[in-house]
Structures are given as C-alpha cells and as structure tokens.
C-alpha cells in the first residue's frame, strides 16, 4: 500500500510537464510496458490514437488493445529525435519526428514517423489526449520550414 | 476602411468557438480561398500542417504555400462528415472524418481523410494550430470504438 502510494506520487511528479509525460510515453513504448503507457493518457473518453496507416482509435479500450498488439512481440526501439512545441499553461501540442529501428528478415531497418502528440494539464499532471502518427521519411529532419523561405 | 473594419468584426464574431473556426476552415477549403483559410490559423510560428502522405509543414509560409498548391486548380469538395471533440476553455482537439469528392479521368471518386484539428483560444477568437491529415477509408465511419468493446 505504501509502495503503491509512493509510486503514484512519483508518477505525478514525473508528469509535471508535457515533456516529462512525453519522455515517459517513449520510455514505456521502448520497454513494451502497456500499463505504464496507458497511465499517461487522460481519462477523457474521447482520447484518440492513429498509428501509421491505421484507423482512428477512440477511447482507452481501443487504444490499449492497439498498443498490446504493437507490443505483442516485445519492445519497440522508437526514439523521438526532433520535437517542436506549442505550449500554454493548460495544453501542449508537440510535433515529433520518431526514429524506429527494427530487425527485419533482410537485416536491420530504420523508419521515420511523424507524430502529433497533444497533452493537457490535469489534476494528476500532464496527460496525453492525442497521438496521431504518419509514415515519415529520413529527410523530414530538414523539414519544410526552410523550404518555404525558398518558395517565398 | 469601414468595410474592412466590419469584415474583421464579423470574422472575430464568427470564430467565437472552435466549431465556428472549423466550419470556416472547410468553407474556405471548398471555396479555394487561401487568404481566408490562412486567416483562421494562429500567429504562432510553430503552427503545423501535415497533408495526407505529406511532410510536416511548420509555420505560416510553408502552410500557405501548400494550400496554394492544393488549391491551384480551384476548389476542393471536402466536407467534414463526422467530428469528435475534446474541449476546454482555452483549447479544442477535434477528430474529423473528411469526405473528399474529386472528378478523376475515370469518373467521380470519393476519398476519406482522417484529420486531427487543434484550436486554441486567442484574443481574436479560436484559431487553428494543427491540421494533421491521414488517408482514411469509407469504413472509418464505424470507427474502432465499437471494435474495442468486442475485443474486451
């Protein structure tokens, strides 16, 4: 019981910012820890998740089922390599470039994913309400901000 | 000058909710009106837009250039057919299913797009900060909420 309480306190402290929650999200993803990963989401029934190329999943049950499937074979080596932020006192929109390393039959492969992660500040700390992921490319690292200044 | 002012007042009144801003966004999209469409975005330099299968575009210049390209051949018949919302006093996350009708060489075609639209409340009313769009499917109408209750 004491352990449980101290764990909850530690967890709340960890989610003192959207960055903390995001770091915990990718840690849980890498560790294949679905319980931990789901604890980082808001309690709102309208939370949503779109995996690359997948449908829209709405609500905790559908999102949990999807991560259980994704993590069925163990951890996923996914690392946020670039993050941009729009933040206020109560919400945060993060634009993340994820690097995903996988061992394929033909050898190790690296893929990139563009994720939009949205967080809100709740009583228990910052929680995720949206994870929308799209297939990306290695050259996303350069992004299109610079490209725009060429066009204009 | 009077006209300009009354137009600005009317526009601010129109953006009194995230729903108003979203309706104006799809109206501008359908009308092929890039100026109107861009006026609905926040002034934040970190606003971002991902078109289906496209890269991440960050900032007003890159986003404007992309809509000019998308709308170069005139309007796009895009209609939001299903919207789910997470809203607070200062921000709103909308999950939208878009129906897009296009005239292709082989005849009329309909496509579906899953969009995550995020809005923030600014002094001038509700403004868009994120439009992340992903190819969807007609059966997205059923979504995966129901599917989850089967799985659990």
Largest sheet composition of chain A: 6 strands, mixed
Oligomeric state of the chains present here: homodimer
Helix tally of chain A?
Answer: 5
* Number of E strands of chain A: 6
Amount of helix of chain A = 25-40%
**Termini Cα gap of chain A:** 61 Å
Question: Which two chains share the most extensive interface?
Answer: A-B, 45 and 45 residues
Shape of chain A: globular
Cα Rg of chain A = 16 Å
What class, by secondary structure content of chain A?
A: alpha+beta
Order of strands across the biggest sheet of chain A? 2-1-6-5-4-3
N-to-C series of helices and strands of chain A:
HHHEEHEEEEH
**Overall average residue pLDDT of chain A:** 85
* SS strand fraction of chain A: 35-45%
Uncertain regions spanning at least 5 consecutive residues of chain A: 144-152
How would you describe the overall organization of this protein?
The structure is a homodimer of 152-residue chains. The first copy, chain A, is an alpha+beta fold. Chain A is 33% helix and 38% strand. The first copy, chain A, has a 6-stranded mixed beta sheet with strand order 2-1-6-5-4-3. The first copy, chain A, is globular. Chain A starts with a helix and ends with a helix. At the A-B interface, strand 2, helix 4, strand 3, strand 4 and strand 5 of A face strand 2, helix 4, strand 3, strand 4 and strand 5 of B.
